[in-house]
C-alpha cells in the first residue's frame, strides 16, 4: 500500500485518477451501507419475529406498496447513477486530447517495447509530466493488458489490431507497468517502468537514447538488446530464463529438440533472429515464432545484434 494511498488504491498520479477514485468509493460506500442495512434488517426480523412457543403462529402481514416500490426505484436510480458516471469516465479515457504525445507500444511474451515518434525504442516508458500521452498498442502474440495502478488506466492489447489508451501524469516519479491478462508461464515477469520526467529531462533522454552514428556494431547491438526487450528472455550471465543465455553462446555446439546439432556461428545467429522457429534448442519452448523480427529490424540492426552476441 502506498504511504499516501489507501487499502484499496495507491496514491493517484494522473488527471483521471480522482474521477475514477470518486466512482470507486461511491460504489464501495453504497455497497457497505446496503450490506449493513440488509444484514441489520435480517437480524432484527430474526429476533422480533422469532417463534416463541409451539402454538405461536405468524400474524398475516398486508403488503406495503411504498416499501415494494422503494426497493425497485432506489436500486434503479443507483444503477443509473453508476452507469452514467462510469460511461462518462469511459468515454473520457477512450478519447485522447488532440495535442497528445503518441507512443507506440508493442506487447510480446514477456516484455514491453515502447517506440517514440523520432525512432527511439526503449523497454522503459519515459513520458513528460503534465502532458497528455496516447499509447497506440498492439500485441505480437497473445492477449495482454496494460495497467498502471497509479494512473488508473488499464486496457487490453489484442493481436492483429490496435487499441489505445491515454493518461496525463501529474507528478515526476517512477511507476510500475503490469500485464493484467494471463499470457503464459512468465506472465508475472512482464513488467516495465514508467518514468515521468520534466519536459527538459524527457527531451534530454530522447537525445541520449538515439544510437550514435559513431557507435561500433557491438555497441549498437547492446542498445538494441535492451530496446527490443531481448533481455526479458536471454540473459548475459549464463542464467537460464525462457531462452538460452547469450553468455558464451557464439561458437558452441547447439543441440536441438529433434536431436540435430549445429555450431552457433554468424549464420546460425542470424537465422535464429529472423526464423526463430527453424531450430529450437533442446529444453526450451518455441516462444518467438510470432515476433517477425524481419519486419522490425533492418539488416544493419541484425548485424549489430550478431556482433553483440559474439562478444558475450
How far apart the termini lie comes to 40 Å
Oligomer: single chain
Contiguous runs where pLDDT drops below 50 for at least 5 residues: none
Let me know the largest β-sheet. Answer: 5 strands, mixed
Q: Look at the helices and sheets and give the structural class.
A: alpha+beta
Describe the fold and architecture.
- This protein is of the alpha+beta class.
- It folds into three domains: 70 residues, Helix Hairpins; 109 residues, Immunoglobulin-like; 94 residues, Cytochrome c-like domain (Cytochrome Bc1 Complex, Chain D, domain 2).
- Helix content is 34%, strand content 19%.
- It has a five-stranded mixed sheet with strand order 3-2-1-5-8, covered by helices on one side.
- Strand 1 and strand 2 form a beta hairpin.
- Helix 1 runs antiparallel to helix 2 and helix 5 crosses helix 6.
- It starts with 16 loop residues before the first helix and ends with a helix.
- 23% of the residues are buried.
- The model has no long low-confidence stretch (mean pLDDT 86).
Features:
elongated; Cytochrome Bc1 Complex, Chain D, domain 2; 6 helices; 34% helix; alpha+beta; 3 domains; 312 residues; Helix Hairpins; 5-stranded mixed β-sheet; single chain; 12 strands; Immunoglobulin-like
List the helices and strands and how they pair.
Layout: H1 17-48, H2 65-94, E1 101-108, E2 111-115, E3 121-122, E4 125-128, E5 133-139, E6 144-148, E7 153-157, E8 163-167, E9 174-179, E10 191-197, H3 199-209, H4 217-227, E11 253-255, E12 261-263, H5 266-274, H6 299-310
Parallel strand pairs: 1-5, 4-10
Antiparallel strand pairs: 1-2, 2-3, 5-8, 6-7, 6-9, 9-10, 11-12
Helix pairs in contact: 1-2, 4-6, 5-6
